[in-house]
Amino acid sequence: MAMIAGREAWNDERRTQSSVTRLAGVLEAAAFLTAAVLGWTYHLMAHNRSGSRVIVYAPLAFTLVCLLFSVRQLQVAVIGRDIPFPYAARVAIRSILGVALITSAFAVMPGWASLNTWPIGTALGADAVLTSWALGWQLRPARWWPAFLISPYHLGAVGGLLGAATFQHSGSVWSTAFPVLVTVHLWVMIASLSAWGLNKLLDNEKADRQRAYDTAANIEHQKNAHWLHDDLCAQLRLVSIQVQSRSIELEDVAQLLDDLDHQIRLRQLDAIFATETVRVAEIIQPWLRRAQNNGVLIDRVPSLDDVSMIVSSEVGRDFSHAVSVLTSNALNAGATRISFDVTQSDDHLSIAITDDAGGLTPSELPVGRALWSLQQDLGEGHLVVVPTATGTKVQANVALTERNHRGAIVAR
Amino acid sequence: MAQLLLVDDASALAELFALAIESKLNHQVEVAVSLADVGDSLKKIARLDLAIVDLSFPQEQGTGLDALAEIHLACPSAKLAIITQGDLWVAQVLRDAWELLPIATVISKSAPLAYQLAAIESVIKTGSAPIDPAVQTLLPAKRSPYRTLSSFASLVHHGGHAKLWSALLSSNDPTYKEIADISGLKLNTVKNYRAQLLPDLVVHGLDDPTLRQMRDFAIRCRPFLAPYLDVRDSK
Fold first, then answer.
1. What is the pLDDT along chain B (235 residues), one digit of tens a residue?
2. Chain B contacts of A135, Cβ < 8 Å?
3. Is B121 helix (H, G, I), strand (E, B) or coil?
4. Collapsed DSSP state (helix, strand, coil) of residue A48
5. A225 in any annotated domain
6. Which of A89, A217, A292, A351 is at a distance of 20 to 30 A from A12, taking alpha carbons?
7. Which helix (H) or strand (E) segment is B28 a member of?
8. CA distance linking residue B4 with residue A27, whole number of Å
9. H/E element holding A123?
10. Which domain CATH number covers A282?
11. A18: nearest Cα among A73, A69, A80, A74
């Protein structure tokens, strides 16, 4: 029943499909199309067949079923989506289509001509591996044919066939039913072979992926080890030497350690940027801590509801640069109170920092300095400076353009 | 003089922080440096006023959520506070703790010492303190009224659901086949049980979760889910 329900019944994870999964989907679709083409080829060439209504409509029914299976598989393989059906409906629909496929196939290509339906074996094998991968089931295709051979279905069919041949004393049983039995054996063997090949390809792909992951992990470990040694240890050594030489006050030691803490936060943020997406909450955190460690009172910060958006790393880096410049600007100006506000529109992700460090106007931005550079980067009108009663509110609007916007997602 | 319990695996830092609390605030502090020590530490304290718990215990199986749940169960009147780095690693655990337990405040580990001590004193005197701004961005503005400890009861309607959750908890890479093998349920039964639980999981922020996401949720919230699994399993 689980296999009849098909892959999509078990595929809860909408993850990107691997190339082998796509290949299996395309192979299944191609196999059904090939079966339909072979069916029509045989039908058009076999002129001497009796023209009963069943025989006339059988190719149409066979083609329709093959197309339904094929188009659905292509849709899943290419687009990665399927029409949502409940489990029971999937089982019922696929069962009906399966019966229709088998009966119409043997009606179109009766007797030994049914061997032309071999592509159905390939389609069955591909469908079975796709479903088993979604289920997490380790298939053993080499055992399929022996298992089929001793299964009650097969033994019953063979027994019935022998009984009919013995008691009817008629050759028609052999000429009609025996080819069907042979064809079913052919399907099982081809399905086993297809499934074995696809399983092998998946194993190879997994091994390649694991090797690539191991290499990337090794490089990352080496980078981290180097950073720990080169940057972190050097900074700690600096503090240590200054303390040993009594050339530094305790307050300055605390300041140096706070700076180190900030560097570690930025390093952590860099590691998050190395993934494809980042949550806005993660971006502003190091700057909140930096302001806090500088003895600044933080009046207002956005809650998770305001900063739960997940943006591309590219947007994240631009946004982080803006937060960095605005926070540093407020701290350098001598702010004692700071507020952080984050807003989002269709086109922009905005950070506004309000301080109590006196007034500032856009015309006063020193050319070449960080705030001026940020204004140039953001573009005309996207760095808004508003004087307040005690200081300044500076808002930076980071563009969510097609170039750098991969979709701001509001997480829970 | 209030009696405090500090649970943090960074033992040197925890001892130093405990000394600072004792000397500057004049309170008595018991330190537990592993989750397994929490029970013994609770026995040493006559009347616990405040427990300050770290969330990350990378060398152990659980998280600070386990310790918070254990303390809350043993001493319901004790105030609970969290001290954390407050990064992405613990963000979800922090949110779970904040929404499910009466957390009085959240303190950032990298906040200035004076700020941390002020927050602790405020909790002891007034019952609460503002959340550290550096951690505020990881928490929603309001607690969901629907996400409570009792809401876990609706995640285990019957013994079958208990089997499903138990299998998820013991699975490394949950697939339908593995869950069916571990639980002894049929494949489509696993699927049906998962489908039955989906509406109740929305309260916990899980919208049509995969088996893997359900497993992660179950592991994170094990202390709140486990009591219902034991009861249902025994029926």
1. 899 999 999 888 899 999 999 999 999 999 999 999 999 999 999 899 999 999 998 888 889 999 999 999 999 999 999 999 888 788 899 999 999 999 999 998 888 889 999 999 999 999 999 999 989 999 988 888 999 999 999 999 999 999 999 999 999 889 999 999 999 999 989 999 999 999 999 999 998 899 999 999 999 999 999 989 876 655 5
2. 175-177, 187
3. helix
4. coil
5. no
6. A217
7. strand B28-32
8. 66
9. helix A119-135
10. 3.30.565.10
11. A80
Residue with tokens 């009591």: B227
Q: What is the pTM of this model?
A: 0.78
Which two structure tokens, joined as six digits, stand for A156? 């019953």
Residues A47 and A145 in one domain: yes
Architecture of domain B3-136: 3-Layer(aba) Sandwich (3.40)
Query: Is the CB of A12 less than 8 angstroms away from the CB of B211?
Result: yes
- Considering only CB atoms, which residues of chain B are within 8 Å of chain A? 86-88, 91, 95, 108, 110-112, 115, 132-134, 136-141, 173-178, 187-188, 191-192, 194-195, 205, 207-212
As to burial, measured by CB atoms within 10 angstroms (0-12 exposed, 13-18 middle, 19+ buried), residue B153 is middle
- Cβ contact (<8 Å) for B112 and A307? no
Tell me if A220 is assigned to some domain.
no
Quote the domain boundaries for residue A379.
Answer: 249-410
Residue A340 falls inside a structural domain = yes
- Domain shared by A109 and A155, yes or no: yes
The CB-side HSE value for B95 (13 A sphere, CA atoms) comes to 21
Q: Does A34 map to a domain?
A: yes
- Helices of type H across chain B: 11-25, 38-44, 64-74, 88-100, 113-126, 133-136, 159-169, 176-183, 187-201, 211-220, 222-234
Provide the 3-class DSSP secondary structure of residue A177. Answer: helix
Q: Taking a C-beta distance cutoff of 8 angstroms, is the pair A142, A196 a contact?
A: yes
> Quick check: B104 and B128 in contact, CB under 8 A?
yes
What sign for the dihedral angle of Cα A196, A197, A202, A204? positive
Q: How far, in Å, CA of A289 to CA of A295, rounded?
A: 10
Q: How far is A308 from chain B (nearest CA, A)?
A: 8
Same domain, A331 and A378: yes
CA atoms of A249 and B231, how far apart (whole Å): 61
Q: Does one domain contain both A104 and A180?
A: yes
Residues of B whose CB is below 8 A from A272: 88
Is B85:B75 a contact under the CB 8 Å cutoff?
no
Give the tokens for residue A64.
Answer: 């329709």
Q: Which run of H or of E encompasses A189?
A: helix A172-227
B112 and A284 within 8 Å at the Cβ level: the answer is: no
Name residue B229's amino acid: L
ipTM of the complex: 0.77
